[in-house]
Automatic annotation (TrEMBL):
The name this protein goes by in its record: Bifunctional inhibitor/plant lipid transfer protein/seed storage helical domain-containing protein
A Pfam family assignment: Tryp_alpha_amyl
Coiled-coil region: none
Domain (Bifunctional inhibitor/plant lipid transfer protein/seed storage helical) ranges: 8-70
Family annotation (SUPFAM superfamilies): Bifunctional inhibitor/lipid-transfer protein/seed storage 2S albumin
InterPro entries registered for this protein in UniProt: Bifun_inhib/LTP/seed_sf, Bifunc_inhib/LTP/seed_store
Domain of life: Eukaryota
């Protein structure tokens, strides 16, 4: 289980959906952080960097499942 203490460390990967395919390292980060998405979306500073739409697009491209009903 990831620590979920540094959501911004992979924020650069969230823009990768704009120019697919995302790199293997970005997808790995997405997979590692999947259990953290709901927690991240409750942090105001994080919501300014990325949103649910970006997370959903990257998750789909990387084959990552997560709860989108946070």
């Amino acid at each position: 289980m990831p620590k979920c203490d540094n959501p911004l460390e992979y924020s650069s990967c969230l823009n990768a959906y704009k120019k697919p395919p995302p790199s293997a390292s970005c997808c790995q980060k997405m997979k590692e952080q999947a259990p953290c998405y709901c927690k991240y979306m409750k942090i105001e500073d994080v919501k300014r960097v990325f949103d649910r739409v970006e997370i959903a697009k990257m998750a789909k491209l990387c084959g990552v499942s997560y709860s989108s009903t946070c």
